[in-house]
Design goal:
With 412 residues, the chain is mostly beta strands. Helices cover 8% and strands 34% of the residues. The chain is built from three helices and 27 strands. The chain has helices at 2-27, 269-272, 278-281; strands spanning 43-48, 61-63, 67-73, 78-83, 86-87, 99-103, 115-120, 125-129, 131-133, 138-142, 152-158, 169-172, 176-177, 181-185, 188-192, 204-207, 210-213, 224-226, 241-243, 254-258, 273-276, 296-306, 312-318, 337-339, 354-359, 383-389, 401-411. The strands form seven sheets. Strands 18, 19, 20, 22, 25 and 27 form a six-stranded antiparallel β-sheet that branches. The radius of gyration is 31 Å and the shape is elongated. The relative contact order is 0.11.
Length: 412
Amino acid sequence: MKNIFKSTIKIVTLLLVLSAIVILPACNNDYPDAYKSTKGKPTVDYIRLPNVTKSDSLMTHAFMGTTIALMGQNLTSIKEVWFNDQKAVLNTSLITSTTLIVSVTTVIPQTVTNKMYLVTTSSDTLSYDFIVDVPAPIVNSMKCEMVPVGGTAVINGDYFLDDPNIPLQVIFPGNIPATKIISIAKTQIQVEVPAGATVPGQINVKSLYGNGRSSFWFLDNRGIILDWDNTNANGGWRAGVLDNVNPTGISGKYVRFSGAMAATPAWNEDGWSFDLWGTANGRPQGDLFTIDPSKAVIKFEVNVDKAWSSGALEMIFTPWATTGTNSYIGDATVPRGLWIPWKDSGSYTTDGWITVTIPLSQFKYNAAGTVLDAIAPIGNYGGLTFFVYTGGVTGTDCTPDICIDNIRVVPQ
């Protein structure tokens, strides 16, 4: 038994040494599958998706950014791949003699030939029929969703591509086309709101490549909680200081928070808050909205025309029956949303009115900015308080002017 044990040790040791010898060449890229460029011309038999489960899906076109696999012979002779006039990035670890994996370029071509060009190590160029599909416009957001007729609407998204033969179009709700497009970039359009564009709804952007529709609404009137023209916070301890001049209102009256503020704001209900108490305001019993909070956002328009550099805008939903108390503002167990746009830059102003969007799933902080375990349950959304207070941040002394309008809860 003793001799057998020693023999086993020797055999195992010998196998480990032999394994190391076998592995070493791989570290020097001398193993059979290592990439080596070759001469001659390649042959492309077909193109497919790299996913083996979809390998039977042959391709003659693909959207920008799609990863494709060229299948053929002598593909290691390819040193460059171009889609129209745009050069792709090649990774030699994804190239063998029979397979070349590459991503379709993401830059819009200047010259469209509907060809893929393969440049070989001998500097020969072969062409292959292949169409790069450009997506339809994607309409993500607006700088401000409440822009009057004649005002400039700034629309953000992607693939806003103009064409001399088929010009880009912006269609406002009510099928009202814009007649004056101020500027077009790939990710942003600036357009004058046309006469007649006065109804709420989605915006369409049409290009040579298709039609894109916004998920948000222009002039959104869904889920309005406070607009200070038709709805207000009367009945609370603070209904808010209302105004409609300096700056001019975006749509009638707005609430204004203003005054001197220290680096760590002091309690100032008169200048920096309003309380909408559902029962005291005469709102129907229940929540202020009916959609699922996990799939909802709160939106409002804001104009900060004097620099803001201290405190957080705290947004607190309260039960419908809450009245005659503001103890929830300092209650460390009450969740709230915090908007602190100056935090990264140190100071914040807006260029006119903008739309702010905050998911209700982010209403999960206490007054010190600490994340709580859970957000408010259904039944706790019958009132709403806005208060500029500490938020767990320290800024610099400032005298901001924060104007807010059209507070609403809408689908995400």
